[in-house]
Write a structure and sequence with these properties.
CATH superfamily of the largest domain: Cation efflux protein transmembrane domain
Radius of gyration: 26 Å
Distance between the termini: 43 Å
CATH class of the largest domain: Mainly Alpha
Number of domains: 2
Largest sheet: 3 strands, mixed
């Protein structure tokens, strides 16, 4: 995150320099997105620090859900940047167009694209490897920054080839549409995480692993639930044992199943199990479909 912040500030300086040289609407929009990016990185860095803090009296499950808030903030800031780009592109188109010093502007813009592409790919790979949504979100934001730079570069190139200045604001508008989609994706990821929307891929993995491990031990399961807490998935499941089994043996078998499922599932999970007897289950829970 420190690397991301340092490079973000460097990108802002380079893009403001390119805008100063060219007066390009697309480059101005690109620089505006970098301002948003720096703000988002600062919040993401704080969020990443908070996720590492241990559980306390007020947060028994830890603080990892801040990852979804961070993703939502980044997405919202990206959307705001897109709105600013749209406003500036339309304003410049209607008030008159003037672009200069294309060669210098192009060189600075190409440099920002290369740096952002390398950083974005690094952050996303590292985030996926460590299961850190904050790093993945920040990496996608960095790549979005690179896309805006590419849009600005295309606009400058088309102006140079055709001599038509309207290519600059047009590319600014197209660029804004692209990052609106990226921002919406991050906001939606934030909402689904905070609302505990089920992960169908994880559900399938859990079903297969639990079916295999319980069947091998003569146990059945039901009432499977899971929720994403940012860095770990919390899983709840009920095991049904024969009436004759000792609590000690049932607990040992349940622990074996839990251990095997944790190893079998790709995502980091924490399982909590509820042990029940087949004989009186329906009597104790006659109306509750979940249990």
């Amino acid at each position: 995150m420190r690397l991301s912040l340092i490079i973000g500030l460097l990108m802002l300086v380079l893009k403001m320099g390119a805008y100063y040289l060219t007066g390009s609407a697309a480059i101005l929009g690109d620089a505006a997105e970098s301002v948003v990016h720096v703000a988002a990185v600062i919040f993401a860095a704080y969020s990443l620090w908070l996720t590492e803090q241990p559980a306390d009296e007020n947060h028994r499950y830890g603080h990892s859900k801040i990852a979804f808030i961070s993703a939502g903030v980044e997405g919202g800031l990206i959307i705001l940047a897109a709105v600013f780009i749209i406003h500036e592109s339309i304003r410049r188109w209607t008030e008159g167009l003037e672009v200069a010093n294309l060669d210098q502007g192009v060189l600075l813009t190409v440099l920002t694209i290369v740096i952002n592409a390398a950083l974005g790919v690094h952050l996303i790979r590292l985030g996926k490897k460590q299961g850190a949504l904050i790093l993945v979100s920040n990496g996608k934001h960095v790549l979005t920054d690179g896309w805006t730079s590419l849009g600005a570069l295309v606009g400058l190139g088309l102006m140079h080839l055709t001599g038509q200045l309207w290519w600059d604001p047009l590319c600014g508008l197209i660029m804004a549409g692209n990052i609106l989609v990226s921002g919406y994706g991050l906001v939606r990821r934030s909402v689904t995480g905070l609302m505990d929307e089920a992960n169908p891929e994880l559900a399938k993995e859990l079903d297969l692993a639990l079916a295999r491990e319980t069947s091998a031990r003569g146990v059945s399961f039901h009432a499977l639930r899971h929720r994403d807490a940012g860095q770990v998935h919390y899983v709840d499941v009920h095991f049904l044992f024969s009436d004759e089994i000792l609590l000690r043996d049932a607990h040992r078998i349940a622990t074996e199943i839990e251990t095997a499922v944790v190893k079998a599932v790709e995502e980091p999970i924490h399982i909590t199990t509820h042990l029940e007897c087949e004989g009186d289950h329906d009597e104790l829970h006659p109306n509750d479909e979940l249990i």
